[in-house]
Amino acid sequence: MTAYQHTKEEYRSSRVAGWHCLKKQAGVGVILTALFLAGCAGNPAIKSGSSYTELYEGASELTFSTLMPVESAEEAIARGDAAYRRGKVDEAVFEYIRSLELDPDNADTFYKIGAINLHKEANNKAATAFRLALEQDATHPGALEGLGLMMMKQREYDQARSMLEQAVEADSNRWQALNALGIMADLRGDFTEARSYYDRALLLAPRNVKLHNNLGYSYYLIGHWDRAEGQYQTALGLAPGHERTWRNLGQLYTRLERYDEALDAFAKVMSEADALNTMGYIRMAEEDYRQAEAFFQKAAKASPSYHVTSNENLEQVRRLIARE
Question: How many CB atoms are located within 10 Å of the residue 35 CB?
């Protein structure tokens, strides 16, 4: 039985009733149901009298047995927030769960638990917490964003788009939702809309490396090479070790036949043989088979362990050359 399937037995009937009501609101319930049924069982919950321990993923409950009792939900939340600021995320969730025993209708607390679990990749527990937040507040922007991001990772793009658009409508400052909407717009070929989302996100997080990289790739997709390069260089100025941007910059330079620069870019994040082989693939995709052949040959010479792979690539590209 998955974490999601435990819900009816473990949460009081009023919460379940609220969940059924949520199904009627803007299709959110249908989307969430699809997500929960797609989940897989997480680690066993800690044993406790708390009906919310299903939301906990971390150190044994005994770790926190010496913590002082709390007098109110507000005190528990304050302790959880303080633990989170110290980087003690397990203790933070433990305190948030204690607060829910005193105030079970706090959407923000469910959201905080969901956000921590999502960061820890405890996806079942994150989704359950986000769902319970939406049960209390169907327009909670953080919970909508969190579930939307999870749906996007599962490639449920239509559902993810709906949830993320609702998140942005509820709170226009959700830069992660805007970034995700931009990515999905690029995937469906709506590049103008994609750049609009990235631009809005960058107004909120102007030094975010991922946003600059994603905007650069959006420009790359429509052949605006100079703008793509500019965004990649901005990203690397902010984070010189950002692997995805170096790969994208190497791809751009290979596409532009700036091969020395491409090799330098790829060499930041991979071996010379890998770099040359990657450049060969890019030129092969551009139907520049002669140049692809040259790169595959260099890759084979650069690394004896790469000989088999490179020869397989050479055979493929030579068959393509023979058809010309």
Answer: 22
